[in-house]
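Researcher: I'd like a structural prediction for the single chain below. Treat it as a standalone chain; there are no partners to consider.
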Amino acid sequence: MELQSALLSDLVSLTVIAVVAFAAPFVASLIPGRPIPETVFLVFAGTLLGPNGVGLVHPSTEPMQLLSQLGLAFLFLMAGYEIEPRQIRGPMGRHASLCWLVSLGLAFALAHALPLRETTSDVGLLAFAIAMTTTAYGTLAPILRDRNLVRTPVGDAVMVYGAIGELLPVLAIAALLSSHSTTASVILLVVFVLLCLDVWRRTKRAAARGSRIVTFMRENAETGSQTTVRATVLLLVFLVTVSRLFDFDAVLGAFAAGFILRSTVPDGDHVLEVKLDAIAFGFLVPLFFVMSGAAIDLSAVAANPALLFGFMALLLVVRALPVGLSLRLSPETRRLSATERLTAALYCSMALPIIVAVTSVAVELDAMSQSMASVLVCAGALTVLLVPLATSLVLQAQGFRLFGALGEVAEHPAQAGTVMREHRRQRLEYARAFRKERRVLHEEGMPLSSAEYLALREYSKHLHGRDDARGAPGGEDADRHN
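Model: Treating it as a single chain, here is the predicted structure.
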């Protein structure tokens, strides 16, 4: 009877989560321009519906925790698959790695300088510092796709710096926050990496030789057997299980599975990607975000607003500031405009999944209180809300030439009235052009948000039949976004 009651409770939780997952894109679409990703609604819906809210979602049961871990695993599988190893190994990848090490050193210094020793241990301070250096690339990749920033200068920079900002914190968690000693953790991490390399080598060799197993998988990929999907799930579950056996977080195994999958199909596999997207973002990933929100204790957050907003400010100082400076100094990214560097740096300060992982490990080790973990997770969730909003506003301000107008006013304060009147005239022209071209795009079957529209120079070129974006929404600087 008790088992049936627990099963019913889990089914109710799953039903509620399914309703939230279904409703989230509709709610997000109600906001003009869709500047807020649906992830935000999933997280805060979980907070309201969880045990600290109305109590319809119960994240503490073992079946729900397992499903949440699978959602986290699929999120990082897709994040690892999005990363192109060639770019990570290139000069930009080296600069991104150096930038992350600078962030880590700065985070350690700030964590020990802040008055946190009364509420957390040395291990907790270490977890706090690692959390400040993260980028939610798994969450960020779908936003970049939705805003058509993939394979643009800004998108490439965010991809490399964001991937490093997710990969290296995962390795830091494995090496520094394990229940083993640091030496034992490093040895186990090396063994795990060697195991992953062996799996990669065998997979690569089998694919290159076209063995009978590989041939059978390809021939049955579109049948009811779904062999390629099953092989991917096997790879994911196997490496996640091994990472847990080594007492590492599941994120490490999932990320490794994504890397191996990408190296096996370096040019991508659209059919497989569609299927994995359906499994991941159709149910498991939304479930993970709702469950993450359900673990947030709003009373703990309300009791410590200084830590909430202070941690968000620290993310900007520790992560966004070094990324912006690195983009300014690195030869590969010097050509980016100031607005593009600001946009990329803000994107790299988004942090949620790794914060969930690192705080969960710290709480399991009794190195951090659950209330402090709730505040940090809530701060990470707020970055997912505020960063897309901020980048959207930056793009729109750039489109209105606001930054140029303010610069002219600063240079010629006596002509401020004339400059602002001209700026207002240009802004009205921009708005009219925006509405006109948006209608055309809708008629062509392309319902774009305002942020997506501002990022798409090629549509302006196609519609106006000219080679530059002057006079079109976004202006000359926005043209460089692609």
